[in-house]
Design goal:
The structure holds three protein chains of three kinds.
Chain A (H helix, E strand, L loop, with lengths): L7 E6 L4 E6 L2 H7 L2 H12 L13 E4 L14 E6 L6 E6 L3 H8 L1 E7 L6 E6 L2 E6 L8 H12 L4 E4 L2 H4 L7 E3 L3 E3 L4 H7 L2 E7 L9 H16 L4 H7 L4 H7 L21 H8 E5 L9 E6 L7 E4 L3 H6 L9 H14 L3 H16 L18 H12 L5 H4 L3 H8 L9 E2 L2 E2 L9 H9 L12 H7 L7 H18 L3 H6 L4 H12 L5 H23 L12 H4 L14 H15 L9 H6 L3 H9 L25
Parallel strand pairs in A: 1-6, 7-12
Antiparallel strand pairs in A: 1-2, 3-4, 3-6, 4-5, 7-8, 9-10, 9-12, 10-11, 13-14, 14-15, 16-17
Helix pairs in contact in A: 2-19, 2-22, 7-21, 12-14, 17-19, 19-22, 19-24, 22-26
Chain B lengths: L1 E6 L1 H7 L7 E5 L6 H7 L9 E4 L2 E3 L10 E5 L6
Parallel strand pairs in B: 1-5
Antiparallel strand pairs in B: 1-2, 3-4, 3-5
Chain C lengths: L13 E5 L9 H11 L10 E5 L5 E5 L6 H5 L5 E3 L5 E3 L9 H5 L22 H5 L5 E5 L6 H6 L1
Antiparallel strand pairs in C: 1-6, 2-3, 4-5
The chains are: A alpha+beta, B alpha+beta, C alpha+beta.
Chain lengths: 639, 79, 154
């Protein structure tokens, strides 16, 4: 088989404790390319539409792509996927580090778990030796602590991924942790792993990978490496990672501040990239094959607390657990990052949940009595520490917040839904969309809720007009195709997207490895196919017109930005509706937000169209027909 | 005074680098901000997300000193 | 060719200097080493290693050959000898993969692999230093006064 593949897929039945080895389904990967693509297809085909995401019928997939580990820079990502308990749709999340390549070098492209183990287990993979082992001694341990312990018990050269107590306890935004600080954070993959009583995975391998054209690949990659080594964009990434973005975000009035109450934080200079590098940095940290080393391994030093080590905070955590919580010290932000990492909760949703709870406390909707005699004040790291403990162990009102802001707001009521900053159940990334309408549309329409990884448009909004929605929808659609290709190929967008490497060069790399001979257009269609399949899956599970689920929280149009460069700005309800109209038209969906047969069949998804039709959710045909090409690449005016 | 601008991506083409592949030598009035110097060169500062000078991230209001190399950072894709 | 061949340390020998605090753990060095010598994508066929020490102190430590010669001294069949670049070269036909050199190496940079019937020792081709973009491993010519082991360990 070769051509990038390791060759074997593992099927693990946790209920029966069996492991089946099968040759990797190359046709599946050829059609869906890998990563997020195969996750979408397997979830759609194998998980019953009424299955509980935390029940035995959900799958839990760990996958790579033919590109992973194959001598390319930043081919480090490993993708996790399942039906998400947070959004009730297809969910996927990936992380860098070294686990994906380790799986390939051990001989495996993918591991698919089904069922639920009767007792806690962990999976060890040591080349051909694959075992499910008893994990009762490890159950209850925190994520980072467990990784250290497993490296001691098994060997330092094992690559390890763990869940913490949050994943064990089914906190819906639980994450998976690896390499002492990389996370697969979004969509609650840690909760799915925990529901299966799978505590950890440990992988080690020393086999070789083979590609279609190794000489050609070596030359192609060496040229790219030499060209990018001195690229001007490289240095700030190497020094700060994404933390350099904190100041930019604030200066441009998109910084989520105190639960997105405003978009400019007056104490940004206490929590920005310079603070991180000057006060907290221990070492720069790279993923497999990438010397951009955007990872920042740091220490949080707070008088009265033990010194802790963590990777981060990168931009998202720095904003969502920084300005969004009113923190005034980078050490406090880092400490909260560490708490979330070790307990095993997504630091993005974590920041969003804490901020939401802080606003509830501010408004008297949550009281000291609810918080076991504690408060939850903006800027208090001690209050946050206690609150997170209640959430991770589901004590009292912690149980409500453990379900995410959407479900917490449903229980708290009294208008709190307005400022539960989420879409489809997943909390917003670290950019406020009121003065960046394309970004708001990105949040509204992403398959996994309010996440920026599918589409990020803030510089487009700034260039084209922050108070107009003109032309935004087509650009969002294009971005929703091209960006997730990185998750499909399990390569890192920060390297392959920020250093002038063209889509043609990336696809050439893919072809040199696999011999597939695909074009960039083919790849965009594959990504669009994945996008539409996930939409169909979502509608089938949630049984209502798509438009129902595509609205942002009411704060987005009701509350104009009160302070900072964006003061007085905000989208209107009419603009929100108009953006959805534009978006559905651009996608070839009907105005209820349902995919039409024309676009689904154009993408080879006739069965999905039939399934939607059977439940009355197939989109009505568009009178003017569907656009021939969906989505349009943004061409900056000045360039 | 003399300063140097350095950029990759499409900014690089607009910059007309003359020192090396990425770098352009610029005659600038002392006391002017990067934003104003870019405008004097006919470059729209809206397409520079921020600047990087001597190992630190600054914004477009930064006022360069003689001989400095200012790296112009284009829009990034978020993270 | 016999195990009593004197081992020398000359100023003209090509060495690798490790600045260990610069290492960020990317392992590109291991990837290109395996590729250069075995034409395969396999970081476990490299002639050096990178240790990750987390969470404490939170650093990476690359280990490279210091040309100390203990592998050659330990070899019972005289399969390892020093070339004029200073590198210790394994005669693959003579090596019977007994692993005595692996045990003797003070830095754990002599390697065995299930695919091979001979050991892997760095030949100082220097491609790893070309790939490293952080300066953690750089070409270096030996200076008489510097402690060899320290320079290689960083």
């Amino acid at each position: 088989m070769a051509r990038g593949f390791a060759g074997t897929t593992l099927h693990v039945d946790l209920t029966r404790g069996t492991i089946l080895r099968q040759p990797t389904d190359e046709a599946l990967f050829r059609r869906w390319h890998g990563g997020r693509g195969v996750v979408a297809k397997i979830c759609y085909d194998e998980v019953p539409r009424d299955a509980d995401p935390l029940g035995p019928e959900n799958v839990f997939i760990i996958t790579t792509s033919p590109m992973s580990g194959c001598l390319i820079p930043a081919g480090s990502k490993v993708e996790f996927g399942s039906v998400s308990p947070l959004t009730n749709g297809q969910g996927d999340s990936n992380m860098g580090g070294h686990l994906g390549p380790a799986l390939k070098f051990a001989g495996y492209d993918m591991v698919i778990f089904k069922g639920i183990s009767p007792q806690p287990v962990y999976l060890t993979i040591d080349n051909d030796a694959v075992e499910l082992k008893e994990a009762s001694a490890y159950w209850g341990m925190k994520s980072l602590d467990l990784e250290k312990r497993l490296k001691e018990d098994l060997g330092e050269d094992f690559e390890i991924a763990t869940i913490g107590p949050a994943g064990e306890n089914g906190i819906l935004f639980s994450c998976i942790t690896h390499d002492f600080g990389r996370q697969a954070g979004r969509t609650g993959q840690g909760a799915v792993m925990g529901s299966k009583r799978l505590k950890a995975i440990a992988v080690r391998g020393n086999k070789s990978l083979h590609v279609h054209d190794r000489a050609g690949l070596t030359k192609h990659v060496t040229d790219i490496i030499k060209r990018t080594q001195k690229h001007p964009n490289m240095e700030p990434w190497q020094k700060y990672g994404t933390a350099f973005f904190i100041r930019w975000s604030n200066d441009n009035g998109v910084m989520p501040t105190r639960n997105f109450q405003t978009t400019y934080y007056e104490d940004t200079d206490k929590i920005d990239g310079d603070q991180l590098v000057e006060k907290c940095l221990i070492t720069h940290k790279a993923c497999f094959g990438c010397w951009m080393n955007c990872g920042k391994y740091t220490k949080a030093v707070i008088p009265g607390k033990p010194e802790v080590h963590l990777e981060g905070p990168e931009y998202e955590t720095g904003s969502l657990c920084g300005a969004n919580l009113g923190m005034k010290d980078i050490n406090h932000v880092a400490y909260i990052n560490w708490l979330l990492d070790n307990l095993g909760m997504d630091s993005m949703s974590g920041g969003g949940v804490i901020a939401f709870a802080m606003e509830c406390f501010e408004r008297g909707l949550v009281t000291e009595k609810d918080l076991e005699g504690h408060q939850l004040r903006w800027g208090s790291v001690d209050d946050v520490e206690h609150f997170l403990d209640m959430v991770a162990y589901r004590r009292g009102i912690g149980d409500w917040f453990a379900r995410g802001t959407k479900q917490a707001a449903e229980r708290i009521g009294r208008g709190s839904e307005k400022f539960a900053m989420q879409v489809k159940g997943q909390e917003m990334s670290g950019y406020d969309g009121r003065w960046a309408p394309g970004m708001l549309l990105s949040y509204m329409t992403a398959d996994i809720g309010a996440h920026h990884n599918r589409s990020w448009t803030i510089t487009v909004d700034i260039a084209e007009g922050r108070e107009t929605i003109q032309g935004r929808a087509k650009i969002v659609v294009y971005l929703q195709h091209i960006r997730p290709l990185m998750d499909t190929w399990c390569i890192c967008r920060l390297f392959w997207g920020e250093l002038d490497i063209t889509p043609e060069e990336i696809v050439e790399t893919l072809n040199l490895i696999t011999g597939w001979g695909v074009t960039p257009e083919d790849c965009l269609r594959t990504s669009e196919m994945t996008w539409n399949l996930n939409r169909c899956h979502y509608l089938e599970r949630n049984r209502a017109d798509g438009r129902t689920f595509d609205y942002p929280p009411a704060r987005s149009w009701e509350d104009k930005i009160p302070t900072g460069p964006g003061k007085g700005k905000g989208v209107s309800r009419e603009q929100v509706e108009a953006m959805l109209d534009d978006y559905y038209a651009a996608r070839g969906w009907d105005q209820k937000g349902n995919p039409t047969r024309a676009v689904l069949e154009d993408l080879g998804l006739k069965d999905a169209a039939d399934n939607l039709e059977r439940i009355g959710l197939l989109g009505a045909p568009l009178s003017g027909g569907i656009p021939a090409v969906r989505g349009q690449k943004y061409k900056p005016k000045a360039f | 005074m003399i300063i140097f601008f350095k950029a990759g991506s499409e900014l690089r083409h607009r910059l007309n680098p003359d020192v090396d592949y990425y770098t352009r030598r610029v005659e600038a009035d002392p006391g002017k901000s990067v934003k104003d110097i870019l405008k004097d060169l006919g470059l729209d500062p809206a397409f520079v997300a921020f600047v990087y000078v001597e190992g630190k991230v600054k914004n477009l209001d930064y006022v360069p000193s003689e001989g400095q190399t200012i790296t112009l950072q284009p829009p990034v894709s978020g993270g | 060719m016999n195990s009593k061949t004197p081992i020398s340390a000359k100023d003209s020998y090509q060495r690798i200097k490790v600045s260990r605090d610069q290492c960020t753990g990317c392992r590109l060095c291991l990837q290109v080493c395996g590729l250069m010598h075995f034409d395969e994508i396999n970081p476990k066929k490299a002639a050096m290693r990178v240790e990750a020490k987390f969470p404490d102190p939170g650093k990476y430590r690359p280990y490279v050959c210091t040309q100390c010669g203990k592998c050659a001294e330990a070899c019972p069949v005289g399969a390892i000898s020093q070339n004029d670049k200073g590198a210790f070269i394994v005669d693959k036909a003579m090596c019977d993969n007994c692993g005595a050199c692996v045990t003797a190496c003070p830095f754990g940079v002599v390697f065995q692999h299930p695919d091979l019937d001979f050991v892997i020792i760095c030949d100082f081709c220097m491609i790893c230093t070309e790939m490293c973009n952080t300066g953690a491993i750089v070409p270096w010519m030996r200076k008489a006064a510097a402690g060899d082991a320290e320079a290689a360990r960083g």
